[in-house]
Amino acid sequence: MLITKDWKDYELIDTGDGEKLERWGKYILRRPDPQIIWPIREESGLWKKADAVYHRSSKGGGQWSFKKKLPQRWEISYKGLFFFVEPTGFKHTGIFPEQAVNWDWIIEKISSSPRKINVLNLFAYTGGATVAAAYAGASVCHVDAAKGMVKWAKENLALSGLSDRPVRFIVDDVIKFVKREQRRGNKYDAVIMDPPSYGRGPRGELWKIEDSLFMFVEECLKVLSPKPLFFLINSYTTGFSPTVMSNILKMTVQKKYKGTITCGEVGIPATKTGVILPCGIYGRWEAKG
Questions:
Q1: At the fourth CATH level, which superfamily is domain 2-79?
Q2: Helix, strand, coil share (%) of the chain residues, nearest 5
Q3: For 266-283, how does the pLDDT look when each residue is reduced to its tens digit (9 = 90+)?
Q4: Which of 32, 40, 57, 154 shows the smallest number of beta carbons within 10 Å?
């Protein structure tokens, strides 16, 4: 398991009873997490003093209750990368802090390469990986179907002082975009993707990870350069194991380019108890050095 532990502006304080208590900058948030099936050891202190609590609705979704007035959004940073945090109506904050271990790896891979790297970031959300790749000196194409998320990613890039970096932001269905890139003959040295379990593109295009992921990885092979650097897949889909990710990468990227594969879980330790909260899985393919 990869453990995220180098944050200063984020902290997983405690977990229990289906909830997690987190510090985002100077604000404490309490929100649900279905994997937390163990009890809260002691529901006191900061648990009772959270600045905002997310309550699920029996009809789906939910809403935040604020103990005090918070800014609509605020800034946090990670090793020179800067992001806007905003509690959204679907419980998220715009950042998945566990992904910092992948940002570190992306930066190391790109900055240690003797050549200019062109990165394709798919299902790119608010651009954590985009900011990391641009910071390391890569050219980046950032693609997401949600216009609001792409706007947020642009703002994160600017907040990090990287607006002058060669980054393209595209609002599009990722499958249609990759197929157009094939026709255009555009190539990339690295692919990053965070596919959802289920989703729809801007024009209602359906994505179901169990039906679409393998096919999509095969399509992405067609836009890889002759000597790609890496291929990274993250997943939060319940029931997907790291072995599934390893099998997909072996049958696609490794079959064509050799190289090495590492797959596993990502987790964050709670500072109060040391309990590690699992936060999805990753699959990495990288060219042999």
A1: Golgi alpha-mannosidase II (2.60.40.1180)
A2: 25, 35, 40
A3: 999 999 999 999 999 999
A4: 57
At residue 42, the 3 state secondary structure works out as coil
Residue closest to 95 by CA, chosen among 173, 167, 29:
29
CA atoms within 13 A on the CB side of 273: 18
Question: What is the domain class of 96-286 according to CATH?
Answer: alpha beta
Strand-by-strand arrangement of the 27-32 sheet: 10-16, 19-24, 27-32, 52-56, 62-66
Nearest Cα neighbor of 48 from 87, 19, 75 is 19
End-to-end CA separation in angstroms for the chain = 23
Residues 197-227: tens digit of each pLDDT: 887 777 777 778 888 899 999 999 999 999 9
Alpha helical stretches, state H, 123-208: 128-135, 147-159, 174-184
Q: Do 2-79 and 96-286 have matching folds?
A: no
